[in-house]
Amino acid sequence: MAKKFIPIKDTLSKEKVGKEVSIRGWVYRKRELKDKVFLVIRDSSGIIQAVSKEGEKAFKNAQKITIESSLTLTGKVREDSRAPGGFEIDISELEIVGLAEPFPIGRDLSEEFLLDVRHLWLRSQKMIAILKIRSTVLGAIHEFFRSRGYYEFDPPILTPTACEGTMTLFKVKYFDEIMYLTQSWQLYAEAGIFALEKIYDVAPTFRAEPSKTAMHIAEFWMAEMEAAWMKLDEITEVAKDEIKFIIKKVLEKNKPELKILGRDIKLLEKYATAEYPTITYTDALKILEKKGMKIPWGKDLRTKEEEILGDHFGIPVVVTNYPKDIMAFYKPSDPKDPKTALCFDMIAPEGYREIVGGSERSNDIKQMKEDLKKKGAGSGDYEWYFDLRKYGAVPHSGYGVGVERVISWICGLKNIKDAISFPRTMKRFRP
Length: 431
Ligand code: 4AD
Fold this sequence. Notes:
Elements: H1 8-11, E1 20-32, E2 36-43, E3 46-53, H2 59-64, E4 70-79, E5 87-98, H3 111-116, H4 118-121, H5 125-146, E6 151-152, E7 158-159, E8 171-174, E9 177-181, H6 186-196, E10 198-206, E11 219-228, H7 232-253, H8 255-260, H9 265-273, E12 278-280, H10 281-290, H11 303-313, E13 317-320, E14 333-334, E15 337-341, E16 343-348, E17 353-360, H12 365-374, H13 383-390, E18 396-402, H14 403-411
Parallel strand pairs: 3-5, 6-10, 12-13
Antiparallel strand pairs: 1-2, 1-4, 2-3, 4-5, 7-9, 8-9, 10-11, 11-18, 13-16, 14-15, 16-17, 17-18
Helix pairs in contact: 5-7, 5-14, 7-9
C-alpha cells in the first residue's frame, strides 16, 4: 500500500506520540554528531526535528543528505522539549528524493544577495510566513467585497491611455502601435458600474516610478472598488472597514506567522478594532504646523509629512480634500470648497504611509478636458470615457488599496520588496 504522508504540523501533537508517521519535505537544518544526525525537516505547514542513530537503517542516508535536499521519512513521534516545536521523530526510514548541491544561502547575507537568489530564498521561514499572510490578505479582499454584494470585474492590462498621469507609464510595443501597462483599473471600472453597479478587482498594476524608496515597486497589486451612487463619505467608510477586515482575517489565521516575523500582535489588534479618524488636508497642515512643519497650502504631502501624521494618530487616518490642482483629472472639485477635490488617501502609522487612494469621479466633461490639457495630455483617447457621462451619468466613487503596502505594514517589513514574491523596481527585475 502506498504510504500516507501527513503535513508536518499534524505531527506536532500529543495524540501522535508513540505513533508512526510519514512526512515529506526538505532539509531545513542539519547537525551531525559522531553517532547521531539531527535533521530539521520543513514542508509548507511547519518544521519538525528528526533524529537518526548510528546502527539504524536510515543512518547512512541521514549522513549523506544535505541542506534543502528533498526527502520522505517515516518514524515514531516522541515529545522532546529541546526540539523546536516540542516533538521529535525517531527516523526508521529515510529516502532521499532530490539530493541538493551545497545550498548558497547561509546566515547573515546581504539583502541584495537574497534578492539575487530570490527563487531559493522564497523557502526561508521569513518568506514562507509573508507569503502565507499575503494569501490571507488576498482572500480577505475577495471575501470582503463578495459578502457585500460586489461583483468581480476584470480590467484590461494593456491600455491606450494614462489613468494616473503620463510620467509613470510603461510603454509596450503592440503590433505597430504603442500601448501602456495599466496604472489602475479605474477608467474601465467606471464603465463597469453601469452594468454591475458595485464592483471590485485585485490585479497587477504598473508604474515606471524612478523612486527608490522602501515603499515603491514598479509592478504591484492594487485592490480596487468602484460603486455607482456612492459619495466620498461612504467610500471612506468602506475603505476603513476593508482594512480592518483584512487585519482581522490575518489575526484569525496567521498568528504563528506574525510571531515568526516578530510582529506586535497587540498593535495589530488595535488596528483591527480602532475607529479611524477622517480629517481634511487643511486640518493635516495644521497638525503638521503644530509639530514644527510649515507646509504651504497647495503642496502635496511627502514622505516625512505622511510619517508624522501616521505617528500623530498611531492608527490609520483618512485625509480628504487635497488641493484640486495637484490631483488627477477625474477628481471633481468639492462644491463646498472648490479649490479642493472630493478625494482621500488613507495613511498608515509606523511609517507605512499611503495605503489607499480614492475619490468621487467627475461627471463634468469640460473640466476633465481642461485638466487633461493642463497636465499635457490630449483628450482624444478618452472620448469613450467621456461617453460614460453622456449616457445616464450617475454620481460614483472608488478607491484603490496598495496590496503590498498593506502587507508590508501588517508584517512590519522594512522594505516593500519582501511583500511580493519576485519584486520589480527600476534596478531589480531578475530573477
Ligand atoms: O493613489 P493611487 O495612485 O490611486 C489610483 O491609482 C486610483 N486610480 C485608484 C482608484 O481610485 N481606483 O494608488 C492607489 C494605491 C496607493 O494608495 C498606494 O497604496 C498604492 O496604490 N501604490 C503603490 N504601491 C506600491 N508601489 C507603488 N509604486 C505604488 N503606487 C501606488
